[in-house]
Amino acid sequence: MSGPQGRRRRGLTWAIIGGLVLVAGIAAVILVPLITSNPAPDPTDTTPTDTTPTADPTDTPTGEFVDETASERGWVAEPITTDAETYVRAALAAAASFDTTKSDRGEWLSFLDTWFTPDTRYTSPDEQQEAMEASQLELRQAVVLPEQEWDSLTREDGRVEAKVEDDVELAEVPDDQSGDMHIGTADVTLTFTRSDSSGEETSYDEQVTVSVQVLCGTDSVPTPDSGQRAGDCKVIRFFSEPQEP
Question: Which residue ranges does the record annotate as region Disordered (predicted)?
Answer without folding.
Answer: 36-65
